[in-house]
Amino acid sequence: MDKLRQSSWILLILSLLFQSFFYANSESFIGINYGLVADNLPPPSETAKLLKSTSIGKVRLYGADPAIITSLANSDIGIVIGTSNADIPALATDPSFAKQWITTNVKPYYPASNIILITVGNEVFKSGDQNLISQLVPAMHNVQEALSSESLGGEIKVSTVHAMSVLANSEPPSAGSFDPAFGDTMKGLLGFLKDTGSPFMVNPYPFFAYQSDPIPETLAFCLFQPNSGRPDSGTQITYMNMFDAQVDAVRSALNAMDSKDVEIVVAETGWAYKGDTDEVGASIENAKAYNANLIAHLRSMVGTPLMPGKSVDTYLFALYDEDLKPGKGSERAFGLFNPDLTMTYDVGLTMSSQSPKTPPTPPPTPPTRTPVLAPGTPYPTTFPRGGCEPQDGVSLADGGCKGNNCSPPGSACVEPKTSHGQHMNDYTFPCIVSSLVSFLLCFASLHL
């Protein structure tokens, strides 16, 4: 009976671990932008099925389309909705308008649809409209008050999205600073974010950084590929990719404004897979390299040099191409998926594409011996690596996977060696689960 109970407990633990592993396939730090400036998009219900088949954990809408919000109900996918820039004057001056906006766009769907954040406008500072800029923070306050009046103030955050041009300086990252022209408005905005625990949202695009400096070394730096790095004399850190450098420039700007506790969210980042003839760098090869390597970087949990050990929530741009967008050809070529739901190119977001490729057949290995322990022998204290030999394991206190990199093939190898190497090797959740499962299976074979 004791052995039966032990067996039941081990099977239960294994079941829970496997469930945790599969739930972890939806990664909360990876989001995607879902724009609607197109005439060929699939129905929201089909898009919802597509999203559920991926590891995407959040979706950002530029408005509050009811069909999309409804289609994502009961999915646990976090939803960001937004007001238009045109709504800002009314939101700022009329609290009842803000309440009506919440009544119309949030209350009918929440909590079945997991609305997590409302963006008030998009790249308002970049617009140059001084009247609109001055009304931004009052509009955010009124939206927050409207949420609070519905007892949703602590559930749904309020923020706004910025272009990188909100910074007056971004190189080196340690010298990042906000444009002083935004002065009091920026102070008020950051005060609001601190008071409400809301994130600072920004759109870093290494794609555009490369276009302003189109040389091979810059391309490698932007694509997370091997390069000589860029030293920051202010911190003695050598940056190995543009994404980290841009995000840390924002971090430095926030820190300089006494906003060290304000989290950063990357609201948009991506790479065009085609463009006009004069748009350097827009290709499928570069787009795939950027997005795949960015995703691998986020999954590594290494973080940035100034924010180590965690991944910044990042919304990829974009889910689909938007064929009605004006401007350069690249504006209509950022989509990771086609209207027929196939991938434009594979960056490892779908469950099938995350499956490891079949490795080459290894050379034969001797059969593993199953040791028989004498009565009173202490239980093993190591996690076995594919067998039950104690010497083949690593101590739990040593960190499970120790020096091994458990990232899937094709991901960690593209990651640059950053100068903030004090953070242990890529200790992903699947790696830990694998070690625990191996240990429990071995334990069962020894003691049941």
CATH topology of the largest domain: TIM Barrel
The H-level CATH homologous superfamily of the largest domain, spelled out, is: Glycosidases
**How far apart lie the N and C ends?**
11 Å
- Would you tell me the overall average pLDDT? 83
- The first-level CATH class name of the largest domain: Alpha Beta
The helical percent reads 25-40%
Strand content: 5-15%
The number of helical elements comes to 14
**Class from secondary-structure proportions:** alpha/beta
Proper CATH architecture of the largest domain: Alpha-Beta Barrel
Order of helices and strands: HEHEHEHHEHHEEEHEHHEEHEHEEEHEEH
DSSP summary, beta strand count: 16
Overall form? globular
Q: Describe the largest sheet.
A: 8 strands, parallel, barrel
Low-pLDDT parts are: 14-24, 355-435, 437-446
Rg result: 24 Å
Count of discrete structural domains: 2
User: Which strands sit side by side, in order, in the main sheet?
Assistant: 1-2-3-4-5-8-11-14
Describe this structure in words.
The chain has helices spanning 2-23, 44-52, 66-71, 88-93, 95-105, 124-127, 130-149, 183-196, 206-211, 216-222, 242-256, 284-300, 351-354, 429-447; strands at 27-34, 56-61, 78-83, 115-122, 157-163, 167-169, 177-178, 200-203, 230-232, 237-239, 264-269, 303-304, 307-308, 314-316, 382-383, 394-395. By secondary structure, the protein is α/β, with parallel strands linked by helices. The protein has an eight-stranded parallel beta barrel, surrounded by four helices. It has a two-stranded antiparallel ribbon with strand order 6-7. Helix 5 packs across helix 7 (130-149) and helix 7 packs parallel to helix 8 (183-196). The model is unreliable at 14-24, 355-435 and 437-446 (pLDDT under 50). Pfam families: Glyco_hydro_17.
